[in-house]
Amino acid sequence: MQASELSSAADCGDRLPAAIRATRLIFLVSGIGMAAWAPMVPYAKSRLGLDDASLGLALLAFGGGSMVAMPLMGWLVHRFGCRRVIGTGGMLLCLALPCLAVAPSLPLLVLTLLYFGATLGAVDVAMNAHAVAVEKQAGRALMSGFHGLFSLGGLGGAAGMSLLLAAGLPLAVAAGAIALLLAIIVAAQWNGLFDDAGDDGGHAMAFGLPRGIVLVLGLLCFASFLAEGAMLDWSAVLLRDFRGFAPASAGIGYACFSVAMAAGRLTGDRAIQRFGPVLAVRLGASVAAGGLLLAALAPWPASALAGFVLVGLGAANIVPVMFGAAGRLPGVAPAISIATVTALGYAGLLSGPALIGFLAHASSLPAALAAVAGLLLLVAASARVVRR
């Protein structure tokens, strides 16, 4: 190894603790920023006088913005480095929240949601590419813990915005307060971030159809994200219509899933370090499939809640391991492969609830959720694809 390479390695080693801390906080920022929008949705519906159909179409712009941005962001990270994309995307994300709070018409709300989704997509791709570089430098599993901070941010963002609104703050003021906090965090972590994505000169294309191992990883992420989307959109319906829960309390199912997923991710690095990524994915997907089957087929209310907990625990570390595997593929720039896998995963999150709805209409919701469990069993059977 040449002297310049030794110096570069030593410099990265010295900066590693700060880089780990910065990565954790950027994941937290992303989770808070995404979840802070959820309590704002009813306000947007009321302010603009939207019906359910109009609101649903408008909300598609959020996912559409992310999907469109992700492939391009992979190239930008490869071209300009993680630090610039995270810093710029993070600041633009902060600006989106107060804009969402005051959008005065449906067309402007749609444009703002496209912008919001694009900024979140930029941060998502860049922070995962940065996480791969940090994990590679550290020589140990860190990705699940990073995603655990995203999950905690999701819980904190929704709760924090709700508390500010319950305290009587105007929507724009509450959104501005959260945006200011996030901007301060992003700015404070600038120096801790690595400048590049830690790639080795792999091939980079801004656009292109996924193929080979990248396509396989993307499809596995599609199935895992589809299961997460099922919990978000259908868990309350299952509890209300099939397990006798009152409408006001049916949301406890998703809460059980979310808390279990956060706990699974925060403890996942130790499990992956001990058992390896293949066994972690195989066991996790199997546990998640078992949880879905328990929730869908057992007739008791408590069994449904227990099933949702198992889905959260089992699915917690599948996506982090997949992203880590995508970032280690030889001959492909990490940011490009992560962007591709992330986009396919988000496609599952966005289209999954509709697919489940079609299946439920043709048969029943429990049967549709059992079909999702079958997809998770395919993920378990394909776990060897993430071998280091």
Number of helices: 15
Which regions have little confidence, pLDDT < 50, spanning 5+ residues? 1-10, 203-207
Binned, the helix content reads over 70%
The best one-word shape is globular
* Radius of gyration over all CA atoms, rounded: 20 Å
**What characterizes the major β-sheet?**
none
CATH topology annotation of the largest domain: Growth Hormone, Chain: A
Strand runs, count:
0
The CATH H-level superfamily of the largest domain is MFS general substrate transporter like domains
CATH structural architecture of the largest domain: Up-down Bundle
Overall SS class: mainly alpha
Supply the CATH class of the largest domain: Mainly Alpha
Question: Can you describe what's shown?
Answer:
The longest helix is centred in the first third of the chain and has 34 residues, at 3-36. The chain has helices at residues 3-36, 41-48, 52-80, 82-102, 106-138, 143-166, 171-188, 212-242, 252-266, 268-275, 277-297, 301-315, 318-327, 334-362, 365-381. Helix content is 81%, strand content 0%. 50% of the residues are buried. The chain is globular and about 55 Å long. α1 packs antiparallel against α5 and α8 (212-242) runs antiparallel to α9. It has two domains: 3-192, Up-down Bundle (Growth Hormone, Chain: A); 212-386, MFS general substrate transporter like domains (Growth Hormone, Chain: A), CATH 1.20.1250. The chain starts with a helix and ends in a 7-residue tail after the last helix. It is mostly helical. The chain has 15 helices and no strands.
